[in-house]
Amino acid sequence: MMSIKEHPPQSEESQTGEPMHVPVLLEITLSKLQPVEGESYLDLTAGYGGHARAFLNRTDNYLDSVLVDRDENAIKTLGDLAEKGVTLIHKDFVSAAQDLVKQGRKFDVILADLGVSSPQLDRAERGFSFRFDGPLDMRMDNRTEITAADIVNSYSVDDLTQLIIRYGEENPGRARRIAQAIVKARPIQGTTELADLIKQTVGRGSMKHHPATRTFQALRIEVNRELKLIEELLPLLPRLLNKGGRVGIISFHSLEDRLIKRYFSEQATAGYEAELIVPEKKPVSGTEDVHNPRSRSAKFRYAVKK
Who has greater pLDDT, 117 or 235? Predict the structure, then answer.
């Protein structure tokens, strides 16, 4: 089932004026990962600190904890935690994890929430959403060289088609029609311009979501190398955990969850060679988050270091 991968907005603002978002599956992640006083915490996608503050409130161990995010705007909102001793790392989670492994760092609790935060989506200039007219950017880290506009205006029809099928999970026929329309309409610079073009090309039909949703997802994944980074991260996780340490991952669409499920399944069936124990085969669904109706598409999986 297709769903928009995002966190719901919240009316409050952070200390820097950035809009906050409601942490997805917060109570469930706390319940399953069971942080206790004195434990070290690694948040690989800290965002605006929704999960991190709740976990750190339980552990009260700021000096041994690390928060990672590749979004400079998110890092800026975590200054109060840095003042308490938390280490902030402004990198993608794979680069950060590789650095921490080299340093020999290990943690008792690790969390990775793979959703795009509402503060990212709700800023038109970030170009993530067609709900706001802005440039086709979509970079989670503004140091990344390639933007969505670069892809839209340079990829061939075949490459765009395959991208929209693979990362957008779009119907092949619709994907090719969209790709052909994009190439014909170049140059395309704005989010609304692209969304309107896609709607005019394939129509809405009986779809519940906007017909551009899948294409925007595909572009965002390509710009930020999202699935490739997840694949690179997973085998690093056991090396970052203390014995008995817990790691949890929140995913928002089937492409992500498939990678996580496969890795956890390999661990569960590896016998003596396994590094992780997987307590629950099935993920916890976001439909169990009664406080957050827009987290329905979320899935949470977790494992424990042997």
Answer: 235
The model's pTM is: 0.88
- Between strands 241-251 and 299-305, the pairing is antiparallel
Distance of CA 242 to the CA centre of its chain: 24
Give pLDDT tens digits for 129-173: 677 789 999 998 888 899 999 999 999 999 999 999 999 999 999
**Six-digit token string for 26:** 């917060």
Give residue 247's Cα distance to chain centre.
16
165-173, long-range: CB < 8 A, 24+ apart: 166/218, 167/217, 167/218, 167/221, 167/222, 167/227, 167/255, 168/214, 168/215, 168/216, 168/217, 168/218, 169/2, 169/214, 169/217, 169/253, 169/254, 169/255, 170/214, 170/215, 170/218
Mean pLDDT of 5-33: 63
Report helix angle 157-168 to 213-224, nearest 10: 100
Q: Looking at residues 53-64, what average pLDDT do you find?
A: 98
